Amino acid sequence: MKKFIILTIGIIVLGFHVTAQIARISGTVTDESGEPLPGVNIVEKNTTNGTVSDIDGNYSLSLQTPGATVVFSFIGFETQEIPANLTTIDVQMTAGSLGVDEVVIVGYGTQKKESVVGSIATTTSEELKQMGTPNLSNALAGRVSGVISMVGSGRPGGDDAEIYVRGVATLNSDNSRPLILVDGVERDFTQVDAEDVESFSVLKDASATAVYGVRGANGVILITTKRGKVGKPTISARYTTTLQQPTRLPTYLGSFEHALLRNEALMNDGLNPRFTEQDLQHFRDQDSPYTHPDNDYFEDFLRKVSYMHNMNINVRGGSDRLRYFVGTNGMYQDGIYKQFEGARTPTNAHFKRLNLRSNLDFDLTKTTTLSLDLNSRIERQQNISIGDIGSTSLFSEMNTTPPYFYPYRLPNGSYGGNPDGGANIMAILTDYGYNQVNDNILEGTFKLNQKLDFVTKGLSARGMVSYNSYFERGTKVGYWPPTYTYDPQTDTYTEITEETPPWISTVDGDGHRRRNQMEVALNYARTFNEHDVTGLLLYTQTQSFANQNVPQGFLGYVGRATYAYKQRYLAEFNFGYNGSDQFDKANRYGFFPSFSAGWVITEENFMKNIPAISFLKIRGSYGEVGNDKIGSDRFLYLQTYNLSGNYFYGTDQSFGSQSALYEGDLGNTNVTWEVGKKSNAGFDMKMFDSKFSLSLDLFREMRVNIFTSRNTTPNMLGVGLPRENIGKVENKGFEIETGYDNRDGQLQYFVRGMFSLSKNTVVFQDEVVPKFEYMRRTGKSVGQNFGLDVVGYYTPDDFETDGSGNLILSEAGNPILKEGNAVPTWEAVQPGDLKYLDRNNDGILDTFDEGPIGNSRIPQFIYSISNGYRYKGFDFSMMWQGSGGNHKFITGSGAYEPVRERNRFLEIHKERWTVERWQNDEAINYPRLSSAQNSHNHRNNTFYLQKGDFIRLKNLELGYNFPKRITSGLGISNLRLYAGGTNTLTFAYIKNFDPETGSSSGTSYPQMKLWTFGVNVTF
Amino acid sequence: MKNYITIIILTALIFSACEGPLDVKPYDKYEAEFVFSVTKKAEEYVLNTYNVLPYGNSNSNGYNRLDGGDAMIASASDEAMPNMSGSTVTYLTNGSLSSTSPNPDNTWNHNYQYIRAINLGLENLDYMPEVDQELKEQYYGELIFLRAFAHFELVKRFGGIPIVTRPLNVQEDLAIPRNTFEECIDFIVGECDLAIQTLLAPEEASGGSLGRISTGAAMALKSRVLLYAASPLYNGNGYDGSGNSLICYGSASPARWEAAARAAADVINLHYYELFSGTGLTDGHTDTQTMSIGEKNYRDIFYTLAGNNELILVRTSALSNAVEKKNTPVGYTNGEGTTGPSQQIVDAYGMVNGKQIGDQESGYDPADPYTNRDPRFYASIFYNGMQWSGRAVETYIGGADNATGATNATKTGYYLSKFMKSDVKIAGSETNTYHCFPLIRYAEILLNYAEAMNEAYGPDADPEGFGKTARNAVEEVRARVLRPSDAAVTAPAGDKDAMREAIRKERRIELAFEDHRHLDVKRWMIGPETLGQNLQGMRITKNGDNYSYEVQSNVSDRVFDTKMYVYPIPQNEINKNKAMEQNPLW
Q1: Is residue A453 within 8 angstroms of chain B, CB to CB?
Q2: At what angle do helices B133-158 and B181-196 cross, to 10 degrees?
Q3: How far apart are CA A930 and CA A399, in angstroms?
């Protein structure tokens, strides 16, 4: 280690011998309208010698080689290369076409966009920033084709999206998440500030992901953060304030209607009504708030609007030796719980984040570059004191407590309670305290890049050491005040729940996690006449630590070779050779190759005559990629014995915990990774001066060796079966992206659209041959919903009646179904209950009648349409995003009528079946009400299965850039004001909750719509 | 030069990398050989196999609790009904049971899981250190016993089942056919005999070792198994009359009763076990003043661990009040009142004078039904007006424990109070107690003996010189709770049928709610008149200070079909095992 330090210092010292400058150029850079353009990068070609234009567009640069070519580049403008044959060079930059990035981030490197043959989608920092959300994972929807993102909750700090690349191709959706790397290291990316993001790439096909080998099968997302650029410091500051509102909240009925319907439900089941005429009168008149309250919890306890503030300041620049990007970002997001006077502690949810980032690149010598990236972040989440930090208790209380249940406060100031349980929400938000979780995150990377042109031209080597350290701990403060009921007649209080004195405790949270990663690589890139050749050989290893667990290891060798002839014919070979400690020694290493080829047709001479088509490339790839995410139990290949539980014997205190040991699930030494065999074909085209673009990708994947359990072994075996690599799933689909960008003239505009579809089919899983073919899950999609088909409601016509039309009751007091009706087996039915399809026509309704209904939970298709205009300083853009082809069961308190004293009635319950409503031909949209969990109606069936399709105005932004002539007087190079909206309009089949909700009963923290106002200043 | 230095650094990094981050092993998991070569670990392994002994979802609930720990299997017999709405136990009583519907009492997986664990233990015991030879033999006996016990748990539910005596291998052909009923019985009895050779003696399995399996337990299991085998369900042509060897012997033989009598006599003649009748104010009991000696003697069986020589095979629980919570009537804070005893079982309890309530001379008054009843009634049933925890139990319509619409309110007018300790607090500053759940207790052995002796030799004969007649054994059981003069059984001398009736009645109340009744009525083949009868309850109305009592003829529909004498083999096992045969009529 000591030697290493000496060597490093030595390298730094040696590197400071600099060559003398020989010539000098200067001039002014302007844009098309002649306005001076500050901040343009001006670099001597093939060197790191450069500068940037100042506020008046002026620059001067001393050249290392007289007469060298000078490169002028600026984001959004065409890059120009001009030979330095004059001492004064004035340059007019022309705007480049939007969205055309020269370089694409690929696995372990970068490639020129034109020569990429893999299927890679990208988005820009600008687009991600527009989304206004503090969580980067929420900003993806609709931005990148082939990426499905579902946001289940809007809780500050707890709003990570569920992300899938090209849908799902394996049997367990937990194992189907993509690999996500930030600056080449597996890191938590959700809290990276969008401002700090330089590029965002999604690698989809085998050609792009094979280098990630055993971890690449579910797709890979690469995020790079900004780095320094040679030039004067550019200071950029952004401040936004955001108004948050729930996208949707369910509408529940008030006390009077609740009481009426509850009575009806009880009477339907032959029970006595719960509420008397007098009760109903009180509810109607609202004249007895202490005994007959009518609470509106959402109104009383949720804010109309809550705020979020986000600030980012960064400085980017560099000299000939050092380039830097340093920045800080602070964010505060408030929750939507109301706060009340006299609260013991703040109880509202919130999320705070402070982030410091420093990406430094030093040129130690002409050939050696050292980079040091340090990113540290502290985060704090707060939520109510009940449950863990992700607790949805507050929402489940609001969603399940009937409106009459208790008055919030009694005349003497104490809290109201109810013998049937539940916590007083007013007390939760005033006295219960809070749960806070603090996270400290430190991420650091040290990189050394050495050009080895002296060995052979074009060769370079690099090494990287990196670590991530996460630590999470929290504090919980609690106090449960007593609750009472109050009788105004006698002015007496009866205690319902006892007081729990104040307490404070430590929340362990995730504890300590650490990941160390190391990488060394050899790179080769050289052009021989018309042949472009590149190569890469890389070794990487990772070790992860989490609290007391045995560290988890991974290592891999990576190779890539690319060849291009005349920029016209492209070929690429990639491989990953990986080992993972998930597997037995004999099966530890896997080889994952991929091949791809492309043809840039527009480079051919015969295409030069067709000026309309400015670019056309066709490409194809085939390869194999692995997935080693096979569940949380890591040593599946070992047969182990586990301690668990205990057995009691003996007569007195001497017994107690006699620990017991048992044989764990059988080991399977053959455990290995899943293999995705992927093929991809597509083309990219640009037409009409590159204004029109179109890309299409077709893909097919056969995922084999899916890790799943056998289902055909008798339970007589008596032990948990090892899972085996036996499943097979096919996933196929396409992605299409198209757009039209017009940047000519005063009014500039664009229209873009994308559509992705993926559909999977279970080809094999070890399934017992079911009694009926429709029960078979093989051949259907992963996660296909199963249930009963509702064909209508039972009506009195379905039952035996006596002469006067009254229902005849059986001995046990149940109506008797007429002959010919299939007999339900769950419980006795009565008119108004759901009528199911007797799928197998056996005259009996039972679980054998459950067949596939709807699709699976994960959307099959996603799409977005965006559109924007720019006129003078104004710009406007919007994006509509939608997804569909999926179904969700909405059950429990999100759909059922109250099945016990707690729970609430929804609007739809007013449209229930009753004999009067049926006779009057009124709209009937709900079965008759039950007083308890109705095992006939409350089943997985088509009635409770809802289409997940939705389309929403995902983003809306209006901005204004002040003219340079105004701002430059203030020393500001750019000043922008903008206002935007996120999720502001939603159209969906699921009405009561946000369509992306993660909870089937809708009791998660609601997803938010955001109104953002921001200012951006660049100096 | 500096370039070379860089190369050296990079190379150094590569070499430092090759330390093998993949070479890790879990510290907290063991392999078989290690487990058994350490005596402490071997003991832990054996202890885990004890978990095959039936209990609910938690070792504090006692017995064979089904339905997530709320319902008792008693609620699937004519003893009771579950008070929870939608309890899955009703699948066993409403005729909806089929091979594909979930069977709440399906212990197939549980028992085969432990049979495997036991077999694996037997295979590896030899790794135990030489010095612990004695312990090794004890563990051997325990494993053999538990394997026999698990097999019988399956046999009494399903008939003949595949006997498994080695750990099966997932790769082998698992199409294993069922053994015949006779093979199963012979196997279980043989294993009991084998286990007896190395198990602890009864006196060693007490005190700190109470709950460990003793020779007495093995002999007692043998008594139970042989009694079942001699019973009409099996000792003949089977419930469907086919003589199918999977479910019966195919022919009747009185010798089976003789074998059963001898097995019971062997336990009795150990002269170690006795009916528990703790005298004096042991155990901190506070209610003695309001409790007769008989009631207290009987109640105490279920939480007295020290000096309780009635326990032959027992599961003990940690300090807990789960049993009290599960059973306390719903009007008490935290009372869950999950079980509603039937009018049938209430009527089966005689009077304190030993007579049945139907007897003219019993003194039973239908208008005051809970006075002067058999002490075991008071120790088993919560009835209207019973004093408990500072107030009278109110199960009358609208009473505190039978409020309209209250969760788990009784539909029978009763709650279960057996197994509960009366001074345990379940609300406020809660208190706990130890419990024990006898899986086999001496009273059962006496009743096994009485039943087998009566069938083999009649009520008053003891030709083998075992030491007592059938009548003696029944009276011994009764004498714990009744005055000696009232304990006499009134069946005429030599009247086998009357004695059979008396024995069955005695067994019904003595062993009520202890997982016996639903199987006893099946082996006696009296399903239609017991399990097939709708459950009765008591509707109690309060008029001023008086109550009126009205028997409800049907508080829970019951269906019994001949095939229900056994459970169907789970369809999944048939689907997955080509050699598996379904039970007749299913």
Answers
A1: no
A2: 160
A3: 18
**Helix, strand, coil percentages, rounded to 5, for chain A:** 15, 45, 40
Check if the beta carbon of residue A694 is closer than 8 Å to that of residue A740: no
* Beta strand residue intervals within A780-837, DSSP E: 786-787, 790-793, 823-824, 834-836
Neighbours of A530 (CB within 10 A): 10
φ, ψ of residue B448 to 5 degrees: the values are -60, -45
Residue in this structure with the two tokens 């109340």, named with its chain if needed: B509
Q: Where are the beta strands (DSSP E) in A286-349?
A: 306-318, 322-334
pLDDT tens per residue, range B373-417 = 999 999 999 999 999 988 999 999 889 999 876 788 899 999 999
Q: Does residue A594 contact residue A203 with C-beta atoms inside 8 Å?
A: no
Per residue in A172-184, pLDDT (tens digit) is 766 788 889 999 8
Angle at A897 between CA A401 and CA A836, to 5 degrees: 155
How many Cα neighbours within 13 Å face the side chain of B106?
19
CB A849 within 8 A of CB A826: no
Helix axes A255-268, A277-285, angle to 10 degrees: 160
Q: Which residues in chain A show pLDDT less than 70? A: 1-22, 32-33, 75-76, 95-102, 173-174, 631-632, 644-645, 652-658, 811-812
Q: SS3 letters for B271-288?
A: CCCCCCCCCCCHHHCCCH
Tokens for A700?
A: 């097919």
Calpha distance B9→B11 (Å, rounded): 5
Mean pLDDT of B126-140: 91
- CA pair distance A237, A329, nearest whole angstrom: 10
Is B31 or A894 the better-scoring residue by pLDDT?
A894
Query: With an 8 Å Cβ cutoff, are B318 and A10 in contact?
Result: no
Cβ distance A717 to B554 less than 8 Å, yes or no, reads no
Identify the pLDDT of residue B272.
95
B117 falls in which pLDDT band (50, 70, 90)?
A: very high
How does strand A23-30 pair with strand A91-92? Answer: parallel
Question: Helix, strand, coil proportions of chain B in percent (round to 5)?
Answer: 40, 10, 50
DSSP three-state, residue A869: strand
Q: What's the pLDDT at A75?
A: 65
Binary contact (B306, A652; C-beta < 8 A): yes
Among candidate residues B294, B318, B277, B287, the one with its CA nearest the CA of residue B436:
B318
What lies within 8 Å, CB to CB, of A482 at 6+ separation is A414, A415, A417, A495, A496, A497, A498, A499
| Closest residue by Cα to residue B292 from B304, B306, B277, B302 | B277
Q: Rounded distance, CA A574 to CA A536, Å? A: 9
Task: Give percent of chain A above pLDDT 90.
Answer: 39
Indicate yes or no: CB of B108 within 8 angstroms of CB of A539.
no
Helix pair B39-49, B108-124: axis angle to 10 deg = 160
* Residues 840 through 869 of chain A touching chain B, CB cutoff 8 Å: 846-848
User: Contacts of residue A656 in chain B, CB cutoff 8 Å?
Assistant: 318
The tokens for A908 are 């739809």
What would the two tokens of residue A717 be?
A: 């075996």
- Token pair listed for B416: 């279960």
DSSP secondary structure letters along A901-934: SS---BGGGGGB--HHHHHTT----BPPP-SS--
Q: Scan residues 85-104 of B and list those with Cβ closer than 8 Å to A.
A: 85-86, 96, 100-101
Above 70 in pLDDT, residue B64? no
Query: Which chain A residues are Cβ-neighbours of B59 within 8 angstroms?
Result: 647-648
Element (H, E) at B222: helix B215-230
Q: Which of A648, A721, A812 sits opposite B59 (nearest CB)?
A: A648
Query: How large is the ipTM?
Result: 0.80
